[in-house]
Design brief:
The chain is mainly β. It has a single domain (about 1-110), classed as Jelly Rolls. About 10% of the residues lie in helices and about 45% in strands. The chain contains 2 helices and 10 strands; from the N terminus they run βββαββββββαβ. The chain has helices at about 20-25, 100-105; strands at about 1-5, 10, 15, 35-45, 50, 60-65, 70-75, 85, 90-95, 115. The chain has a 5-stranded mixed β-sheet. It has a 3-stranded antiparallel β-sheet with strand order 2-1-10, with no helix packed on it. Strands 5-8 form a two-stranded antiparallel ribbon. Strand 6 and strand 7 (about 70-75) form a beta hairpin. The protein is globular and about 35 Å long.
């Protein structure tokens, strides 16, 4: 589950991309994701990485978090052509349905909680 500091649920259906294969594949080849779905990448060490949308058939919102789960940047990526580089010191990347950033008012500097239960 992914929560805002006030306890509001951002995503209740959470998947973790922990291995190199699942992290490389991400959301590629999926037809769609649910509104309350999130794919969480946990990087072994904080760093800057590239995120691409090749073979992703729908737009998504992406959050880049530091080790304290504070939002470093929130952005939307277009299907197929979207490409971005995360800020340095990124520890977590969260891919969610398009519109999540606006729907939950997610902004740079806000803390969120990733609950693995």
């Amino acid at each position: 589950m992914i929560l805002k500091p006030n306890g509001e649920v951002i995503a209740s259906d959470v998947e973790f991309a922990e291995g190199i294969i699942s992290q490389s594949r991400g959301l590629m080849f999926r037809k769609r994701i649910a509104e309350k779905y999130a794919l969480v990448f946990i990087l072994p060490t904080p760093k800057s990485v590239s995120v691409h949308m090749l073979f992703v058939f729908f737009p998504i919102d992406v959050l880049f978090l530091d080790t304290n789960q504070k939002i470093l940047r929130a952005t939307r990526l277009k299907s197929w052509t979207g490409l971005t580089k995360s800020p340095k010191n990124t520890k977590y990347i969260i891919e969610m349905s398009a519109g999540s950033i606006e729907r939950y008012g997610l902004i740079k500097g806000e803390w969120i909680k990733i609950d693995r239960r």
